[in-house]
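Amino Acid Chain and Its Fold in Token Form
===========================================
Structure side: the spatial fold of the chain, written down as a series of whole-number tokens.
Position: the record begins directly beneath this header, with no further notes in between.
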Amino acid sequence: MSNLTLNMSDGELIRRFKEGEPWAFEALVDKYAGKAFQIAYGVLGNRQDAEEVSQDVFIRIHKALPNFRGDSEFSTWMYRIAVNLARNKYRWNRSRGSEKNLSMDATLGDQDGSEMSRILASPEKAPDDAAANNEFEAEVMTQLQALPDLYREPLVLRNLDDMSYDRIATLLGCRLGTIKSRIARAREEMRKRLRV
């Protein structure tokens, strides 16, 4: 992303895209693709599914952006699309039992679909430390996935995306107190499950 696009607001980028400048959409993708992936990964716990969902987010946005009126911030709109698509994928995976199916084309990895390179110990860590860290990370994702949606989603938005409580409440259509309560309960449940 160039310095020019870094200094442009989302509104300016959207205006430029609507005026027929495709680079403006690419700038929005560059700016928000990581956030979409974080949300999807937090909800799904699977890198391949999260990549698929984050791509779908921007396909949807590209189709709908010409009609975007700006009633909410672009980022809020993008987060809402990401959460909804990730929820749909999560439900679809559960009903289909995707965790029991293996693809012959899938990258070698552990149960959450991460790549083999991630499993191998980095040069900075001793093999035992790396293995313990990978086990703990896998357990965190397992326990996060076991939380009910109404606790998991706000926790993911708060912890992975560092989103404010107000923004989470707006995005999920809940009251601020409800969101604070759900996040507190989710954190307490995670502490119990992880014994930390």
In short: Residues 169 and 176 are 5 Å apart (CA to CA).
